[in-house]
Amino acid sequence: MQPESSDTPTIKRRLTVMIYEGVLLFGVVAIAGLLFAPIFQQRHALYLRHALQYWLFLVIGAYFIWFWIHSGQTLPMKTWRMRLVMLDGSQLSFKHALARYFLAWLWFVPGLALAWVLDAKAWTAIAIVMANILAWALTARLHPSRQFLHDRIAGTKIIQLHKTK
Fold first, then answer.
1. CA 44, CA 22: separation in Å to the nearest integer?
2. C-alpha to C-alpha distance for 136 and 74, rounded to whole angstroms
3. Distance between CA atoms of 64 and 62, rounded to whole angstroms?
4. Does residue 165 form part of some domain?
5. 68 or 52: which carries more pLDDT confidence?
6. Cβ contact 29:37 at 8 Å
7. Average pLDDT value for the chain
8. Taking Cα atoms as reference points, which of 1, 163, 160, 164 lies closest to residue 83?
9. Distance of CA 126 to the CA centre of its chain
10. Is there a domain that residue 5 lies in?
11. Residue 2 — very low, low, confident or very high, per pLDDT cuts 50/70/90?
12. pLDDT, tens digit (0-9, with 9 covering 90-100), for 130-154
């Protein structure tokens, strides 16, 4: 077991873990989609499209919540020696993990909603969503311990683990 630290990983380090997480999620989503198609006899991409989106939202949520409540770490977090804990350093409860999962969608949802309301197309829509992501990432700069807004609201924090010798 690695000794823990109360140090917060740098924002750059946490964003790197998010990119790594996206790469792994590609595989999780692919497998979930491959399971969905034969179970519901999906013959083409538009058939049951919204049901597939709900299914993927649940699968991704189950992935994160399971890892967060069992070890506090997904594979990328283990690789980069980070752990998700409660503010007091204890392990997350299901309720807090679920809250954090929903709150983490605020990285994207406001930008997507604004792009939809403005009927933004192509690069304009991408720019709006990217501005939302950048604004959300910058919220960590405003907090003394550099925690992201969704962690502060959920009562959680990411800590850096020390290297083992």
1. 25
2. 21
3. 6
4. no
5. 68
6. no
7. 90
8. 160
9. 19
10. no
11. very low
12. 999 999 988 888 888 888 999 999 9
Task: Give the rounded percent of residues in the chain with a pLDDT score beyond 70.
Answer: 96
Q: Both tokens of residue 112? A: 């997507």
65 CB-near residues (< 8 Å, 6+ apart): 94, 97, 98, 101
Q: How far apart are CA 98 and CA 62, in angstroms?
A: 9
Length of the chain equals 165
Whether 91 and 85 have beta carbons less than 8 Å apart is answered as yes
**Count: domains in the chain:** 1
Structure tokens at 39: 């179970």
Spatial separation of the C-alpha atoms in residues 157 and 7, rounded to whole Å: 10
Q: What letter represents residue 60's amino acid?
A: I
The Cβ-side half-sphere exposure at 165, using a 13 Å CA radius, reads 0
In a domain, 129, yes or no: yes
pLDDT exceeds cutoff 80 at 6: no
Q: Supply the range of the domain harboring residue 25.
A: 11-160
- Kindly state whether residue 54 falls inside one of the protein's structural domains: yes
Tokens matching residue 105:
């969608």
